[in-house]
Amino acid sequence: MEAPFIVIIASGSEITAGRSLDTNSGWMANELFELGWKVKKFITLPDDPDLILLELQTLKRLAETRPVLVLMTGGLGPTEDDYTLETVLKLSGKKSYSVEKAKIRLTRIYESRGKQYSDILPTVIRQTHVPEDTKTLDNSVGIAVGFVEPIGVDSYLVCMPGVPSEMKEMFTRRLVPELKRIYPRENLVQKTKWLWNIGESLYQKDFVETHRDRLFQDVEWGVTANRGYIKCIFQSTDSKKLEAIISELETQYSKIISDDVFSFVHEELLSKNLTIAVGESCTGGLLGKKLTDSPGSSSYFIGGFLTYSNEMKEALLSVPGEMIESFGAVSKEVASAMVEGIYQKTNARYCISITGIAGPGGGSDEKPVGTVWIGLKTPDGSIETHSYIFPGNRESIRENASNTALFLLYQSLKQRKI
Amino acid sequence: MEAPFIVIIASGSEITAGRSLDTNSGWMANELFELGWKVKKFITLPDDPDLILLELQTLKRLAETRPVLVLMTGGLGPTEDDYTLETVLKLSGKKSYSVEKAKIRLTRIYESRGKQYSDILPTVIRQTHVPEDTKTLDNSVGIAVGFVEPIGVDSYLVCMPGVPSEMKEMFTRRLVPELKRIYPRENLVQKTKWLWNIGESLYQKDFVETHRDRLFQDVEWGVTANRGYIKCIFQSTDSKKLEAIISELETQYSKIISDDVFSFVHEELLSKNLTIAVGESCTGGLLGKKLTDSPGSSSYFIGGFLTYSNEMKEALLSVPGEMIESFGAVSKEVASAMVEGIYQKTNARYCISITGIAGPGGGSDEKPVGTVWIGLKTPDGSIETHSYIFPGNRESIRENASNTALFLLYQSLKQRKI
Where is the MoaB/Mog domain (chains A, B) (predicted)? Predict the structure, then answer.
């Protein structure tokens, strides 16, 4: 079977008015990419039934010439401006019916709040409706039922709720197995590695171009730029080819390569009963925030110090005033004194300090905007310091600095492990 | 003249693969909304010249029936997969030429790096090219020149770079004046107010529905949900009508209404030479991060304490252990003791503490997940505490808590001002 022409539609006037960002389409495209499917087009439409119908009619006509898969989110809610079901019924000329299982679930939810079926508004009941002769997709998070409507030979229109948590659960648990059944294909393997503080174009030139002929046959690759790191993605049906690439990548970039730093740091600190504390200047709390993003972080994150001013570096972390005077607040010496101060106050096994110039002001020829010193005290008592000049604006420099601090922690945890 | 049918196109395979999020389209739609224009459709396409051409041909055909305005970003860069210029030349049957001004600018940039014109790669020079007979849009941030290509009666295809900083500058400085000239229209006035910790649907029912007949004639309204607050947007050509709505809104929601809290807090702390320090438990640094997002925040943000563990609440902020024992770490008493401790250690004029249960674990019947106490010590020495039960997941609760803390600060600063 020919691979389907995949189109993702997001409906919602709040998106086309620029008041809300559609993250569903990108999320689905990424999931599909990992399954080996490439999306050909995203479309976003306001809650306008005429425009939606016009678009679906165009796609249905396209399905007369080749397999088409349309994934649409939004418009299945209980408000006036939810038009998806109505539009699909117009498109297909079908009638709708209420899915018994969903109706029972809805009734139970109302009963648990001390209400009964007759209290439920018709627009809420409408959410349990789907067109006749469709494959239904259960919603285990919310109310609205999803469905897969045939629109041609090997062609389908999938309608799902726009609430991300409902859509994601439905996509992963209900839709993906269905898609694998409808469009059977070879299993694609994917590998991802992160490289730190290196540009996308330099990586392409030094790695992809250099090894293209030898390593990249039948391998798809992609790269995405993030704050402080790039993600290198490789896909193939041949896992040996991927292994060869990863091995070459690990040799060439041994000092700056990592897996997912955020999840590794979390898992490792948690499972090894380690503790950590931080002292932040230019990042103002961003490192602490990142270290406490995951549930369970209270097991390892003890606390920290936001020593934004020089006075606070002295008062809270006992950094000598003369040291700040002589070397400047953004210096190897101060980064080192900060971690020592954090350790004295918290006794945490790992201590991290960050001091830098986030800009836009405060830079000099000697220490330009973006200059950041990071200090790390490890459980063996040793202190290491690293300096960087991060590119970009204030936000970018702060993100770079806190992510890179986590990468240094990752490297230390990784060495411990070996 | 009939209002144009506006379509925004973003091109980029990294977007349709889900590796990068298109924020350009939403940004432009929002800017256009404030100018009184509504966007009918967003389209995102991979870097595939055939798909792009097909789409532009379809839109050019639509322009035979009505005015169409297409705003396209991306594909003007110097790499192999930048196809915008080539595609537009195919669409129009025109030739391109190099814009003299842009070529001079490019040469100067190369000369400043000690290189000469002959060093510039042809693909880089291509960025200075535009189709003949178009209105050019100067790029004062990067290299690639934008242009406005006529595609029918009162219909235009605008091509701009995909780099957000280049596009935004070009859009605001070059394109908007051009659009106002091409599509003259009445001046639209817009007012925005924020309401805190109230649901979108409750606001719609209690305010919009209640006053619809009396206040909303010839007024467009919108509402967007954010973390801790909703933004209420009103537009009209009649500024008196907007004033009547704002006045009603301020009366009905006097305790929870605000303007942009983030910019007000920044401006006010800065201009009044005030200082602030924080102590954060469940937010782990997020409040400090938000208070230091803006350049210049070092003038008022002294520092803070990330007292994530109970031990650190005692050690760093002198919260009595028996108090934590008796009332729990998430309590009015501890929030109050925390701000007092922050003040003792920093002498900041404003001190804010946050202690709460961000979840998903740690909740109880008495204190469910989402329970947060916020303490605020003001320059007159008084301490106020507020409790909330914030909805949503861990991330949402942490965002809600830190934003609401800034709202409390806003209210206190506002009262001082009066």
Answer: 7-182
